[in-house]
Amino acid sequence: MKFDELGLRAETLRALTDLGYETPTPIQEKAIPVVLMGRDVMGVAQTGTGKTAGFTLPMIDILAEGRGRARMPRSLILEPTRELAAQVAESFDRYGKYHRLTKALLIGGESVKDQQAVLQRGVDVLIATPGRLLDLFERGQILLADTKLLVIDEADRMLDMGFMPDVERIVNLLPPLRQTLFFSATMAPEIRKLGNKFLHNPKEVSVAPPASPAQTVTQRMLRTHTDPKSKRAALRGLLDAEMDSLTSALIFCNRKRDVDVVYKSLKRHGYNAEALHGDMAQPARMETLRRFKNDEIRLLVCSDVAARGLDIPRVSHVFNFDVPVNSEDYVHRIGRTGRAGRSGKAFMLATRDDEKLLASLYKLIGGNIQELDSPGGETVETPAVLEGAEAKPRRSRKRRSGRDEAAAEPRGRPTPRSEPAAVAEAVEAAELPAEETQAEELEAQATEAEVAQAADKPKATRSDGKRKAAASKAPQNKASEGKASEGKASGSKPAGRKRDEAVGETPFGDHVPAFILREVPAAVLEH
Length: 527
Ligand code: AMP
Hints:
seven-stranded parallel beta sheet; 12% strand; binds adenosine monophosphate; Rossmann fold
């Protein structure tokens, strides 16, 4: 099928030709005609399937006639994270370049005043995270009475992140006579039930997930000692061994505190690295992402929340500095490489404290990951090899909150247990207060002061792209200014917690007990 058979306007087709899009993806083929007919849609599709264009393209055509009135957006797209919202906004710019639609992006960490000013001028498309939208609504800055087209994107993630009550509140503020498009990567019964609450006689469209990373990504694991210094040295070993074939890489850490420490350590060792995590002010996050996408940054050290769902097509390598606490995050992480049929490489560091997490991960992906005997070295014999096997991403039905990740502190030698038991134990151990999961409100309160503060910081400088670049660049984000130092954890804690900030918190607050930091003698580690 061709794009011009879908019923899209000539201007929209022209924008697609400019982008080099030749044929619609399956979700686009199925969704676009239905949306253009004005029907509600319940769509099952993951990121990477072309889903964004699947709803953006027909929306542009539907909205082409008419204009948004002051504070009364004509359409609304709800996204679970700021980065995803920003990505959708970029899609509108790309696909709508021959239209004169106006849009506003309402996300935490950006200036409320600027967002109010844009809303005041009237917008056709409002792209928002639920918390910031409700905040502006409560300030009387938005009226949703004219919003006749609603998109709830990534519904499963909204549910996971605890945003559904906010989403329900928002939906109740919209006129009942509207068109609603509801997308989710999976359609578990609870998500379907929610969808049915929001939708009227929807057409169900569904596509298979994109090729499993297991088919396109070579996966390897390296055992290291548990102390952070050894882990960082092992990471550098892997990086050095891979440097020739590495175009750009994401390095995932379980805790945002470690994101900061690893990023600083890499910089100190002369690598072209930057950090991306929830503590950074939004403009700094966006700027870092932009530079990474433009190949100005080669290594991006990040947390799961900051990097999830990002569409960065050229990542050649993914490094897991830690075994993820939530096994599903592993699939998301390595899925950042090997995209669109390209091949990619994924490496993971594992310590003796990770047995429980590894057991849970292997259960999820249906096999073991081949181990290396050293960075760049040979693989060692392992029972079942994953390569070529079909990974089986599975979504847990229960919310996997930041608490799980917060509980990633090593605590003695674990015995292999089932994932639910492991997670339950971790949650219990974390003992974070319930308010931690209510943090979107706090995100929404991100003030101009925060933005102004970010503006005061030294601007990101261009890297020369060489591995052995000078290591003396100015830090470019709030978190970088913490007191983290080699081998020591940064204990600085933000005054107000935001939802994605909660992810990296240690269960011990500012105090890290001595036993956690104690180095284990090498002799003890040799089994
Ligand atoms: P999404 O699943 O919406 O995140 O899209 C994944 C990537 O596919 C994005 O980089 C899009 O620009 C790209 N894309 C979407 N639709 C098409 C298409 N029909 N042809 C080529 N690329 C596409």
